Amino acid sequence: MTTIATERLSTDRTIAKGLVHRVALEEVFLTDFRSVPDGGFLATARLPRSHAYYNDHTNHPATHDPLAVFECVRQMLLCALHLHHDAPATMKSITATCGLDIADPLALVVDGYDLDLFGTVVTHKERDGVTTRVVHSVDVRLGDRLIGTVTVDTAQKDPERYEALRMTYRDSRPPQSDALIDTEPVSRVAPYLVGRCDSDNVVLLAPRVEQSALVAGLRVPVSNPGMFDHAHDHVPGPVMMEAARQAGTLLAGELYGHASSKTVLTGLTATYARFAELDSPITVTAQAGAAMTDPITVRFAQGGEIAADMTITLGSTVSRRGE
Question: d(Cα 321, Cα 323) in Å, to the nearest integer?
Answer without folding.
Answer: 6
